[in-house]
Write a structure and sequence with these properties.
Helix 2 packs across helix 3, helix 8 runs antiparallel to helix 9 (206-219) and helix 10 (224-236) runs antiparallel to helix 11. The protein contains twelve helices and six strands. It folds into two domains: 5-180, no CATH class; 222-274, no CATH class. The protein starts with a helix and ends in a 5-residue tail after the last helix. A two-stranded parallel ribbon has the order 1-2. A two-stranded antiparallel sheet has the order 3-4. It has a two-stranded antiparallel ribbon with strand order 5-6. It is 57% helix and 7% strand. Residues 42-193 form the Protein SirB1 N-terminal domain. It comes from Komarekiella delphini-convector SJRDD-AB1. InterPro entries: SirB1_N, TPR-like_helical_dom_sf.
Length: 274
C-alpha cells in the first residue's frame, strides 16, 4: 500500500505503545493530508510557547482548581480560544493547525490544545469521551471534576454531564460510568477522524471521507463497520475490486448484520456472491 508522507508519519506515530503516542504530532499529521505544506514543528513550537507563557502565570499554590482557572484565563481570555458554535461543521475545526491559528474549534480539538498545554506544565489531564461532547479531567485520584474545553473551560460535575447528555440528545439519557472513562490516545484520534468522516460525508467529499476511514482502520484494523464503510466508499468511487474485498470481509465477520441483505445485493450487482 502506498501512503503519502503525511500518512506514513501518522502510521509511524501510532505504532508506538498507546501512552507514548504524541497526540499533537499525530493530529498534525492528520491535518497534513489536508495541508501538504504544513510544518508540524511550527505548531509544536506554538504549543511549547503557550506552555512557557502559562508557566509564568501559574500560582504558587499548585491546587488543581487554581491551575485550571489559570489555564482558562490564559487560553480563553488572553488568547481568545472559543468553541465555534456558529460553524460547528467547518472541517477547519478538526485540524489542530487551524484551531491554533484561528482560535476556534470543536470540543475534541479544543480539548487537545488544553491537554497539550497542561501536559507541558506537568499538570496531567486525560480525555473523556462522553457521547456527543468531548470533555477532559485532571488525572488525579478522587477528584471528580470535568473541564468543558468548548465552553471556556467550564468546570462541571457528573450531574452536569447527565444534564448535558439529555440536552444533546433532547431526551432523558442515563449516564453510564463508561461515558466518563478516560480514552486511550488511539480512541482520541479515532474520534477526531470520525468527526471528519461525517463532515466530509455530509459534504459528499468521498475521497476525503475515504481518507478518514482509512486512517481509522490504521488505528483499529479490521473494525467491521469501518471496513463496510470503506467498501461502500470504494464502490461509490468506482474501485470495485477493493469494494468487493471489504464487503465480503464484512459479511464474513457479521453474516447476520442488519444490512447484510443490502450488502449481498450490492455484491451480486458486482458479480460476486456474499
Amino acid at each position: 500500500m502506498s501512503f503519502s508522507s503525511a500518512r506514513q508519519y501518522f502510521y509511524q506515530e501510532i505504532q508506538q505503545p498507546d501512552e507514548h503516542i504524541d497526540l499533537a504530532k499525530a493530529a498534525l499529521y492528520i491535518a497534513q493530508e489536508e495541508y501538504p505544506n504544513l510544518d508540524p514543528e511550527e505548531y509544536i513550537n506554538a504549543l511549547d510557547t503557550m506552555a512557557v507563557e502559562l508557566q509564568e502565570r501559574l500560582p504558587s499554590s499548585r491546587y488543581p482548581l487554581r491551575i485550571i482557572q489559570t489555564i482558562n484565563q490564559y487560553l480563553y481570555n488572553d488568547l481568545g480560544f472559543a468553541g465555534n458554535e456558529k460553524y460547528y461543521s467547518d472541517p477547519r475545526n478538526s485540524f489542530l493547525n487551524d484551531v491554533i491559528d484561528r482560535r476556534l474549534g470543536i470540543p475534541i480539538t479544543l480539548a487537545l490544545v488544553y491537554l497539550e498545554v497542561a501536559r507541558r506544565i506537568d499538570f496531567s489531564m486525560v480525555g473523556v469521551g462522553m457521547p456527543g461532547h468531548f470533555l477532559i479531567r485532571p488525572d488525579i485520584p478522587d477528584i471528580e471534576i470535568f473541564v468543558d474545553a468548548f465552553n471556556g473551560g467550564e468546570i462541571i460535575f457528573a450531574q452536569d454531564c447527565q444534564e448535558k447528555l439529555s440536552e444533546i440528545y433532547q431526551q432523558p439519557v442515563t449516564l453510564q460510568p463508561e461515558f466518563l472513562a478516560a480514552v486511550s490516545h488511539r480512541h482520541f484520534l479515532a474520534r477526531m477522524l470520525t468527526n471528519l468522516k461525517y463532515i466530509y460525508l455530509r459534504q459528499q467529499e468521498l475521497e476525503k471521507t475515504l481518507a478518514a476511514v482509512e486512517r481509522i482502520l490504521l488505528l483499529f484494523p479490521g473494525v467491521s463497520l469501518e471496513m463496510r464503510d470503506r467498501g461502500l466508499l470504494y464502490y461509490q468511487l468506482g474501485h470495485y475490486s477493493q469494494a468487493v474485498d471489504d464487503l465480503q470481509s464484512y459479511l464474513a465477520k457479521i453474516p447476520d448484520a442488519e444490512d447484510a441483505s443490502v450488502i449481498r445485493q450490492l455484491l451480486a450487482k458486482l458479480g460476486k456472491d456474499g
